[in-house]
Amino acid sequence: MLLHQEDDDEVPCVQMQRINGLFSGKTPQLEKGAEMSSLRGYGKWAPDVEGVTLTWHDLSVYVPAEKEGGLFRKQSKPHKRLLNSVSGAVKPGTLVALMGSSGAGKSTLMNALAHRNPVGVVVDGDIRVNGRPIGPYMNNLCGYVPQEDLFVRDLTVKEHLTFMAWMRLDRRTSRFERRRHVLDLLSILGLSERADTRIGATGHEKVLSGGEKKRLAFASELLTDPPLLFCDEPTTGLDSFSAQKIVQMMGSMAAQGKTIVCTIHQPSSEMFSLFHELILLVDGRIAFMGTPNNAVTFFESLNYRCPENYNPADFFIHTLSVTPGDEERSRVAVKAICDQYTVSEHARAVDLLVHYERHLAESCEIPSDHHRAPRTKFKGPLLSTQFFWLAYRSFLCVLRDPAVQKLRIVQKLGIAIMAGLCYVGTQLDQRGIQAIQGALFIFVTENTFSPMYSVLALFPQEFPLFMREYKSGLYGVGVYYLSKLIAMLPGLVLEPVVFVVASYWLIGLRTTLYAILMTVFITVMTMNVSTACGCFFSTAFESPTFAMAYLVPFDFLLMATSGLFIKLSTIPVYIGWVRYVSWMMYSNEAMSIVQWQDVHNITCNSISKDAPCLREGSQVLRNYSFAEENLPFDILAMITLYTCFHVLGYFCLIKRAKLN
Ligand SMILES: Nc1ncnc2c1ncn2[C@@H]1O[C@H](COP(=O)(O)OP(=O)(O)OP(=O)(O)O)[C@@H](O)[C@H]1O
Question: In this structure, which of 284, 366, 415, 659 has its CB flanked by the most CB atoms within 10 Å?
């Protein structure tokens, strides 16, 4: 059989048919024109795409090696190579098993092929889809089922898919079509009966089984009907029956023309027989690529005979593994297998296919910006749609956890009543001044500390899911951040209102409508600024523990400069600047102004003979270094701080997203 290529520019048809026959017996030979046109018309809006051929040539992947040396003497080591000049090709309608021992480079290869490389990873080589170099359009073209299932646990199966349908499908898809799509997928993947079941998560009430979650992960990817699908260890953690079902399902999808690459560990013989192609990776090199039957023959030709009734998958991995105690000899043997594969007819067949695809693409004169074509065809959801669905998802989560919400409201109510009871009977006299100022300070602290600390986990706990969805191009940082804020807003208004209403009259604060409304407004503002500060710390640090470590000293300074414990005019200059970022001070001053402005009838029953008698509200304010005319400035300062904290939080989230 003639397998080597004499001339890159001339690939005779007979030779190509032979290659295809050798490479995969079941793959239909696509017509030259048909194949190219299928890709040219591709986009999410064009689900009728026929299929894709994925090729990669001379592909190497590097990561920067760790730096050595002390704090002031860092030396860069050369990059570490994870993949070493690998080439391969997968045709439409093929289910490929990507196998190798742990650390062989399977995930690295799959990430490179799917154009989803982690930050810092350098990819060198040529990866093409139907002859086109891959690019950001891969987000639209391919589906990626990750190994670890990450879902919003409080959603039901149907809600999750509906969310995905709005976030992933073309904006021109009608509501009816989306619903039909979701229902069809539920039915195809056997999830119809679980449609209204909550997904659940590890450590919580588990409501979907591992296999069902995996099928849901497939459903999320299949919504866009991608012709190319990557699956990272889809059977890991599943029982043999569920694992078999998943592989069978992938087989049926491949039978419909999809190209599916799947990493897999220890498949049973029965499961292994469902794969059309096999790629064996070892130490970043390809030890074999071709059909499982050809793999057996290839290993036999190297005197590695798979015993009868032995699972070939186990045999290959065993042969390619490094035996403890005999590392040197095993490494030499494994290297010899890779070297033999490189000069084998199987490798040459792959090379020919790779060159053929490239030749085909070049001869079709695709415009230089061809890689943008799929993007221009697909019209993603509008920002407003993304915002609505993200906010809706967050609201659902809040509503689905009523115990936490109820607890927070009950807690607020309890503290408000306790605080109120402490100040019952407050008179407008000299003792009353201290009582009122103390009560106002409780208004400030109670609406500062607990909300600020309660949001510290908000972003870190959802970060893995956010990163996955962000990296797959589902939405941007801004719309995500904004949706989180909006979802929190009802609670951030309700809680302070409950607090003020429950304690205001018990304490005996001013009962003018203006004073009540302004106190409610300032308390709501206080809680929102505190939460904004918490959000900033939540995005700036990778864990709530770190955030807390920095937030506690900051809080101390805020409280010390709030105006109750020390006269603001006497604070030393070197620490005095903190008052300008202390919303506790602004809030305290604003609430004090509301309570004391235009008060002229304070009874003079001085606590001690030496203490001055404060008859006027303005005197009370002056006593705390507050000034009546500062009220608009205090409110403006709180609004500014609220905005600044959120802007900082947003930029920190962008930075974290880019670094991960
Ligand atoms: N970002 C990275 N920085 C440094 N080393 C990395 C990085 N990513 C992967 N590696 C290393 O590259 C090698 C291949 O990793 P990869 O995750 O691709 O292996 P794998 O075959 O998928 O393994 P497993 O089956 O255990 O998931 C491993 O030794 C891993 O430690």
Answer: 284
